[in-house]
Design a protein that fits this description.
This protein has about 200 residues and is an alpha/beta fold. It has one domain: 3-Layer(aba) Sandwich (Rossmann fold), CATH 3.40.50.150. It is built from seven helices and nine strands. The strands form two sheets. The protein has a seven-stranded mixed sheet with strand order 3-2-1-4-5-9-8, sandwiched between helices. The longest helix is centred in the middle third of the chain and has 14 residues. One of its GO terms (biological process) is methylation.
Amino acid sequence: MTDPDTIRVYDTRAAEYAARFQGAPDPAQDAFASALPARARVLDLGCGPGHMAARLADAGHEVLATDASAEMVRLAGRHPGVKAQQATFDDLGTLPPASLDGVWANFSLLHAPRDRFDAHLADIATALRPGGLFHIGMKTGKDSARDALGRSYTYYSAVDLTARLDAQGFEILEQSHGAEAGLAGAVEPWITLLTRKTDG
């Protein structure tokens, strides 16, 4: 994410975002966390205030949490055991190949421009070890738009998203759909997928 207006929203409303979503039950978190090997190396991509990163660190995993928002990184870095740093999706290409056991990207890559999305998926695939886990959450729809707060979103249909994941060598293990009101208040449909990088 490099859109300055989107980053500005997260910088100015980080505390509100953290309070809104802290401690909310999430079956996708349970599925991802339980499928990781012991002492896994995990990237929380677009970590926000670091709730998931903290959970993974508490479970004994080595966690790197990244976000384009400096204020979100500050909040994430307050959790014990979480290494938090400011970075954009374009920095994914600097990760060492086959260095990660898992990547958690929960409603973060929806801020990536469409013309960069496949490249980001490819970088994630490169950084994961064979058999590594990749969770992705996205809002579903079509085209691109800004929400009432000014954040930039790119939408995909479930069919389009699964095809793009398949093209990068991800096997879909679990898939969930729903609709929920986000920070801007609008109820929007979403999809989450737990995938595994294939050996091929």
